[in-house]
Structure to design on (750 residues):
């Protein structure tokens, strides 16, 4: 099962593939360890020797500058050797070649794969088929999960709000296609927030979305009431061509976060976005750059979270 | 020619309303008597069927043997051996071979392959449209004359309803059965799992029930318009069962089947990202499963098919949505049917009828019964014999089944096709 695949026989993290099935105590441990790494960014020498001698391969089958960069930085700061590979997937290169790629890299004495792939389940597939000593970290698979992004968001929320238990969190936008949203919802519910609310038109919500443990609203104005944390999702341009939405401008009118709409939420509400931002589509520049925005803080926190998760999954190899 | 005496088995033959201990006598490939020994009968072979069920050989309305075109997945030899191991004596072959069964030459090639594999009772289903592309009609009459038993579009949708209408009209003109798997291309949206809570949780592209029910409803309207005889294959959801029920009640000439795994598995059984559960139509909800079972029990769905789709290992080795759909399912057909009997969903007679009498009626063939004069297609099985689904007991080249490793109850000991023993279980395994 997914949840067991991630843990070793002692219940410690071996792979990090999804938030689904992980206990609150484990998520809290990740946040605590990340906390201890935050200070490193202010040091003159921003390195710790935890993963010295280890080889980490960033396998990006889908483009991503920010996620890949923060993973690289995190690995560097843990003193690991890092190799980043961008592999384009053509329609002909299916399962076999994915496995072949993995096998070839295994033969080069790799200790960890960080995988981003356009298909749901790809990271699980690699974790199931790779050599037993190798750890796999999911850096986003299809519409399934993006657990490190979710954890850095949790970290950012905890930094500012301290406690999860009374928080009402709204996630706004394309929930249907969002691996980030799925992981965020699971993390928020595991950490015990008061409410997760998703706000989107029906075309951008998956079937039985309530089964994820959320309340649903199709109206941003009504949905933002009493909200402590606002998470905006990126809107892909192809949602218009596939008839999920009529136009960017109509989307912005209904679901774009403006200064006026932000006032409906609690006065100390924070605004988050996993990036990259579409200014004027899902969020107004004034809000993205405004005092309630913590978007850049999320990016910085990404390094500490990824350091924590990399170090934890390598525990079996005598790290930490 | 040879004479066979099947001795003292529990004969179950729904067509002739037989359900008692007795003997079956076979001569020259045909049933010559049930119960009473014919005069001067001198058997060359005696099969002791004590404590076993003797019933008509099974007729499978939907199978893929992967030849021609994909012999790396499976061959006629491997899959007909699997069929014999499963008590299946007649198979309908879906037209999505490579090349597609849309010319008499391909149909003839299939008959040849079947002869060569010593398993002649493979009936090709001809493509309804050329290359299954849904744009031009296939040469249905020529295909019928070349031995095709029906026409169908396999898993491909006919997107254009005008083409579907004309194909059905043309099929009706030649009294051809159309085998139709309802599946709206656009609503299916390249999905790989039931559009529900499980797909949402795992981020799998979903297929709503409406992809099936809307295509079904459209086709039912065209049945009324064209008078075409249609059999709906591999239904997967509650509202399809209701629609077939209503259509029959209304008087339309339709029938339906369900793939055996749909009667046992739901979306909740999917082990996350285990590609053995990747099937089309997808495994749906518990409610759907209950309706499919109910539909079978009430006769709304009259047949069970295996929907056998053997794959090579590579086809199932990948992230779930990228893998090829389908289950290798011939050899689990009988034990899974018997499980429905032990769970009191259907009677044993109903289960056997759904695998023999009823598909024979759909195809209008002289088979599916132990009637005197019929070709001796017989399945003999031990309903209590437990066996493990493993490579020791498995004949299909495809090991893609969610039941791999499980213990199942009910095993075929002998299969006779037109009076020839094509399967006999080793004594050590009985």
């Amino acid at each position: 099962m997914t949840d067991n695949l991630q843990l070793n026989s002692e219940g410690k993290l071996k792979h990090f593939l999804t938030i689904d099935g992980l206990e609150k105590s484990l998520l809290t441990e990740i946040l605590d360890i990340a906390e201890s790494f935050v200070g490193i960014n202010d040091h003159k020498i921003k390195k710790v020797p935890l993963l010295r001698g280890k080889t980490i391969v960033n396998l990006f089958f889908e483009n991503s500058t920010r996620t890949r960069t923060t993973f690289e930085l995190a690995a560097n700061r843990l003193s690991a050797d890092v190799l980043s590979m961008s592999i384009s997937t053509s329609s002909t290169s299916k399962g076999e070649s994915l496995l072949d790629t993995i096998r070839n890299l295994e033969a080069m004495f790799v200790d960890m794969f960080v995988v981003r792939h356009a298909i749901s389940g790809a990271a699980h597939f690699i974790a199931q088929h790779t050599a037993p000593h190798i750890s796999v970290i999911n850096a986003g698979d299809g519409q399934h999960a993006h657990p490190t992004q979710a954890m850095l968001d949790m970290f950012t929320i905890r930094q500012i709000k301290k406690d999860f238990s009374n928080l009402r969190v709204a996630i706004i936008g394309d929930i249907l296609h969002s691996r980030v949203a799925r992981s965020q919802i699971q993390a928020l519910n595991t950490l015990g927030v008061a409410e997760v609310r998703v706000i989107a038109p029906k075309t951008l919500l998956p079937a039985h979305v309530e089964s994820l443990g959320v309340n649903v609203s199709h109206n941003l104005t009504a949905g933002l009431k009493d909200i402590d944390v606002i998470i905006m999702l990126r809107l892909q341009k192809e949602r218009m061509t596939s008839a999920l939405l009529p136009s960017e401008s109509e989307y912005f009118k209904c679901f774009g976060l403006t200064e006026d709409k932000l006032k409906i939420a609690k006065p100390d509400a924070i605004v988050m976005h996993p990036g990259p931002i579409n200014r004027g589509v899902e969020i107004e520049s004034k809000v993205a750059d405004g005092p309630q925005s913590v978007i850049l803080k999320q990016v910085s926190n990404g390094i500490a979270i990824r350091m924590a998760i990399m170090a934890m999954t390598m525990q079996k190899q005598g790290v930490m | 020619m040879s004479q066979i005496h099947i001795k003292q088995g529990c004969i179950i033959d729904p067509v002739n309303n037989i359900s008692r201990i007795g003997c079956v006598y076979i001569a020259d490939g045909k049933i010559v008597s049930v119960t009473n020994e014919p005069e001067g009968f001198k058997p060359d072979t005696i099969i002791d069927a004590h404590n076993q069920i003797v019933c008509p050989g099974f007729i499978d309305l939907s199978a893929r043997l992967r030849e021609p075109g994909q012999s790396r997945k499976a061959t006629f030899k491997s899959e007909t051996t699997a069929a014999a191991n499963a008590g299946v004596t007649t198979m309908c072959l879906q037209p999505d071979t490579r090349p597609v069964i849309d010319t008499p030459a391909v149909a003839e090639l299939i008959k040849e392959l079947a002869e060569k594999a010593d398993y002649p009772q493979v009936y090709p289903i001809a493509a309804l449209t050329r290359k299954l592309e849904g744009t031009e009609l296939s040469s249905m009459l020529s295909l019928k004359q070349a031995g095709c038993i029906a026409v169908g579009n396999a898993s491909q949708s006919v997107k254009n309803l005008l083409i579907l209408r004309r194909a059905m009209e043309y099929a009706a003109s030649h009294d051809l059965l159309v085998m139709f798997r309802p599946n709206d291309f656009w609503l299916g949206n390249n999905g790989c799992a039931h559009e529900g809570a499980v797909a949402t949780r795992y981020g799998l592209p979903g297929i709503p029930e409406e992809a099936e029910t809307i295509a079904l409803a459209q086709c039912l309207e065209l049945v009324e318009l064209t008078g075409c005889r249609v059999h709906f294959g591999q239904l997967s959801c509650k509202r399809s069962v209701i629609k077939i029920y209503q259509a029959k009640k209304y008087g339309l000439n339709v029938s339906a089947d369900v793939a055996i795994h749909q009667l046992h598995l739901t979306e909740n059984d999917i082990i996350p990202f285990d590609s053995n559960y990747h099937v089309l139509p997808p495994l749906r909800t518990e409610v759907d499963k209950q309706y499919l079972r109910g539909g079978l029990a009430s006769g709304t769905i009259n047949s069970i098919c295996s929907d056998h789709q053997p794959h090579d290992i590579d086809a199932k080795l990948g992230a779930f949505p990228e893998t090829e759909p389908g289950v290798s399912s011939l050899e689990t057909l009988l034990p899974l049917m018997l499980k429905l009997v032990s769970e009191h969903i259907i009677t044993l007679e109903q289960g056997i009828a759904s695998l023999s009498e009823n598909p024979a009626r759909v195809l209008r063939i002289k088979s599916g019964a132990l009637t005197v004069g019929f070709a001796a297609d017989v399945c003999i099985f031990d309903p209590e014999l437990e066996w493990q689904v493993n490579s020791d007991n498995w004949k299909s080249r495809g090991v893609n089944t969610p039941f791999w490793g499980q213990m199942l109850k009910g095993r075929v000991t002998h299969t006779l096709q037109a009076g020839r023993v094509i399967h006999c279980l080793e004594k050590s395994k009985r």
